Structure formats: C-alpha cells, structure tokens
Amino acid sequence: MSDPAIVVVLALTALMVLAIESALLWGRRRRGLAVGQWLPFVLAGAGLLLALLAAALGMRWPWVGACLAIAGVAHAADLIARWPRG
Fold first, then answer.
1. Rounded CA gap, 62 and 80, in Å?
2. What stretches pass through the bilayer (predicted)?
3. Sequence-ordered list of residues with C-beta below 8 angstroms from that of 70, at least 6 positions apart, any chain
4. Which of 33, 41, 53, 77 has the fewest other C-beta atoms within 10 Å?
C-alpha cells in the first residue's frame, strides 16, 4: 500500500470521518444542521472516494461503477432536498 494515490485517498477518508464527527458534535452542542441536511452530501463524497480507492487498487470496473452509482444517487437526493419549492 505504498502507492501515493492510495495514501491520498485514505488521508481524505480520515479527514471526512473527522468532519462527520465534528458535525455531529456541533449539532449536538449547538443548533447546527440536522443530519438529513448534510448526510446526502457526505454520502456522495464517500461514494466518490470509494470509487477512487477502487480504481487505485485496480479493482474490476463493476466495483468502480457501483461506487459511482452510489455517489450519483446521493447527489440526486441532495439536489432534490435543496431544490426550491413553490
């Protein structure tokens, strides 16, 4: 696992986990965003990071495609939630 791409993806994943933890703590202590407001956004980013990791590890294309599909569904859910109504 000395490939630089893998190290970068794992570092970004660790940063994303820290961001999720801090968002949860912020929401618990103060009136932060509800989980439903930021969860689709985070899931979309996680799907893209998983797709990048799968490609860097040389996994077969269906795994990369599945991760990209998860990211796409999460992006669509985020757009639907943010779309102005009325």
1. 27
2. 6-26, 38-57, 63-81
3. 43, 47, 50
4. 33
